[in-house]
Protein: NADP-dependent oxidoreductase
Organism: Caulobacter hibisci
Amino acid sequence: MTSSPSTAREVHIVRRPAGPLSTADFAIAEAALPDLAPGEFLIANRLLSIDPVRRMFFANGTAPLNAGLHSFSIGEVVESRHSDYAPGELVGHYKGLRDFAVGRGEETRKIVAGEYPLEWHMGPLGVGGFFAYVGLIEIARARPGESVLVSSAAGSVGSLAVQLARLIGCRTVATVGSADKQAWLADVAGVETVIDYKQADWRERLAAALPDGLDVYFDNVGGAQLDAALSLINPQGRVAVCGMVSAYDSATPFSERAGAWTWRMMTSQVGLRSYHVRDYQRLWPAFQRSVGGWLRRGAIRTETQVRDGLDATPQAFVDLIAGRSLGKTVVRL
Ligand SMILES: NC(=O)c1ccc[n+]([C@@H]2O[C@H](COP(=O)([O-])OP(=O)(O)OC[C@H]3O[C@@H](n4cnc5c(N)ncnc54)[C@H](OP(=O)(O)O)[C@@H]3O)[C@@H](O)[C@H]2O)c1
């Protein structure tokens, strides 16, 4: 068991990123750890989740400058004055990007790693995986035989969404930004058609891959790919809006073509829905059971990029946003 320290090391942003995210936007700082009050417990973080949406929070003011940053983490309780949390227990919480954190039990979930690697509770069995499951099954209601397009399909969320579509019996089309991701999706994840959206003719390739149109679009990126998907969507089609990663690292984040999309949606009864998994907690046990079973049997494949040490956090963010990471990115402490 880890011994209790008097200070924590935490990741800060020291300026608002204006262009592409840079390691110079970050610093590592020390912060005092107060003595535990009744109802508190000390967590030694083991895994920090590196999520692309933080890039937007760094720029738009949601994340404070020169202060501790929030992110999902999994850690071990090392000292406790809370009757429900005992030393040695693993907890998931949102006080990450630091090595030690004080918890009070709110927004905290106990984690039983069980038969799975702990990293999987950050990826396919974690919050991102749950967004994939809820978005594809509950929001888009993908059905066997339908065509499903998933963007950023080699990422943590996308790689699960596209494999769930395959398991449902859908025709799967995926977009990614590099040849290695293309190969992984085709050769390991069993996706039928994979398109590199950085190739000049990606729109033509997408249209050719969907000769009968698109029934479901699982949108991780927004922007030009949402535009292209909506140009192909069939009447009664569904779009699950999970995220907009193309906007996160951009100076001009949002497309100007909303008018054209709205017209198409209106005339074709297309449903486009954003969602948050907090409204679907009732599905969590079924999600854990189903996805856990598929992972165990090898029916779903998953990748984790592990970076070691808190000091690796800034580069992990830069690499994730730049598209250099396959699967889920975590920092291990
Ligand atoms: N993880 C979560 O807990 C969670 C929860 C709710 C919502 N979401 C949302 O779900 C989406 C996917 O999240 P994730 O955690 O799995 O991250 P992710 O898809 O791995 O995100 C990083 C990837 O985004 C792609 N990307 C970067 N810039 C792009 C651009 N301009 N256009 C298209 N793709 C670009 C890159 O892949 P390529 O090499 O393929 O370009 C990069 O590797 C995000 O929009 C996120 O906000 C995630």
Summary: The chain has a mean pLDDT of 93.
